[in-house]
Amino acid sequence: LHRRRRRLPRMLTSDARVELTSGLPGGARTALTRRQIITLLAILTFGLGVRLTALVNALHSPGYSWQDPDGYMTQAVRLGGRDGWAWTFDAVTYTINGQRHALPPMYSVFLSMFALWPGFPLSAQVAQVGLAVVSIALVFALGRRVHSTRAGLVAASLYALWVPNIFNVWS
Question: How far apart are CA 114 and CA 128, in angstroms?
Fold first, then answer.
C-alpha cells in the first residue's frame, strides 16, 4: 500500500481560504473561510480584552494582592534565585504537618521565568492572561476537530465568556 505524502498546509490561497489538514482518515481537507477567521480573531480579541479589563480592575481595587495559598510564587523565586535560574527540589516541596510534600513542578517553573523579570508577579499575571487566550484558540480547535467549524466557534465563544476562566486566571 502506498500512502500519499501530505503536503504542508498552504496559508493564504488566492480565494482567501486557509487550508488545514483535519487529521481525518484519508487526509481530508477542510478550509476556514475569511469570515470564520475574522470571527475567530474577534472572539480571541474579545477574550483578551475581557481578561485584561478584569485584571486591571482587580489591580486598582483597594487592598488587592495576588493570592498564592500553595506558595508557588515563593517556589518560583527559589528557582529563579538571585544568581539566575537553577533547579532545586526544595523549590517544589513544602511541609504540611511535619511531612514533606512535592507540588507538580511545571507551574513553579513557568512562574520562575517571570520571577527573574521586574514587575513580578504582574508579569506572570499578564502571561497567564495570554495563556487563557491561547486556551480559547485550543477550545476552538478541539470543537472544530470533534464536530465542525461552527461548533468550534460556538465553543470558543462560550469559553471566552466563561466567568471562572476570566477571574481564576490571575487571582
Answer: 11
